[in-house]
Amino acid sequence: MYFYFVKWKNIGLLLLLAATINSCSTRTQVKSEDGVNSFYPSTKPCTRWWWFATEIKKSDIKYQLDWAKTNNFGGVEIAWVYPLYRYQSMYARGYGRHYPKDTTAQKWLSPAWSDVVAYTKLYSDSIGLACDFSFGSAWPVAGENIDKGHSSQIYGDSTFRQLLTFSWAWPDTMYVINHLDKEAFELFSEPIGAALQDALQGSKSALFTDSWEIKLNGTNKIWTAGFEGTFKEKFGYDIMPYMDAGLDSFPDVRYDYMLLLDEYVTDGFYKPYVQKCKELGAWSRVQCLAAPTDVMTTYSLVDIPETESMLNNPNYSRVVSSAACLSSKKVVSSETFTCMYGFPSTYIGQEQTADLKMVADAMFAHGVNQHFYHGMPYNPEGSDTNTFFATTYFGPGGSLEPELPVFNAYMEKVSGIMQQGKTYSDIAVYVPYEDGVMQGAYPPERQRVWVWGEYELRYIDPAPELEGYHPLWINRHFLEQAVYRDGKLRVGDAAFTTLYIDVQYMDIRALKRIAELAKQGLPICIKQDVKQPGRAKSKS
After folding, report:
1. Domain assignment present for 205
2. Are 531 and 505 in contact (CB under 8 A)?
3. Is the pLDDT of residue 22 over 80?
């Protein structure tokens, strides 16, 4: 994996510079222990808390929350996942463990389930820990009540439905929602919103949704009823012949398809998600990674934009922190230490604090200022045999436990400084989103089940000649919001002296806006002639 921070000789200097990547949120927020305005009672790291589908007991909840408090954590995020016997063969192969069939779990979203969740929040509040919740079981968003008409769709296969196979309800099936359909999200959100009602009392929580893992790739093109009609109305031509012939053979048509898909996904899922969180009295904390959108814009919609490592290189976090800065978001969170040593089940329980610090420092260097460790498994008191398979182990008996209080104090201190920092950047760099859409698929060695296209921006870096100028990414959306005043390009909490462009393709709307800013006096560095993406070319 590649680390942007290793290009710098002085990591301490880099952290100081990176501490500037964030600024004030317009949300009403709590006051933390160190005086920093935040969504959380402190800047201590939180941890994802894997609740496997087994009987959850209040005595064990209290024990684990006390353990988290003792080890200097600031809070937890409950993530509801599968019964352990669901992956018996993998656990036997990787750990030599046997999990018997277990049907003791509280029924998903039942009153008994709601009761233990509400108790968790109440006890967390009593000892000063934050308590967030995944909005749904596992990921991507799916529900037991999602019928065929509201489930995920792809072009050309009316039988396709994406299954969620590792939810709390397994072996019962959950179907992934149609993220292009607001009604599908509303159908999903009603039962879980009701079941979380008591747990959302007390201190304000965030509701979390994970990265986009809908199967968009070379053979699966996301679709929904009426898409073709809307496309023809918007772009003036019929997309169906191109879909039938293979969309990826026509990059300009694919660009138009992605523009419309962006609108559908934004209006069908992300905006309704943020609105639902507000209705429930919660904040929205969201990983937009790999969404088929101009993702910097998508990140600007949510209260707490979140990134991830190590399934992604730390450099991706600059995309997220740039969007946060340009939309005046104070907190940039991270799901940190996922698959530290590989996927799956490598060295769990044998991790080293020095390795964690290396990853954490890289994330700080790219603007992250609030960490959610990945993660802490639910275990009965006196046991440490339950583990998630793609994670770092934070819990009693692990190799990290002796050093956790001190390490978490370090994380708290740096995060606190980061959250107090004000954004400083000399240069805005146009993000190569259009290039990504036009290029299509990643090379095979960079693809995974959930990773397909260059539009995901997972591997981009500012040009080497910009080192020392503290560059941030910018896209068309933020250029349209920006103003040029007093010799600076100002948008959100950023003020740039220069716009740097080194892309092959640029949307005509962005080019027109850049021309306007140039006429106003903004210095612009363009490294190459740009081409217009999309089938309809501007005559100008």
Report:
1. yes
2. yes
3. no
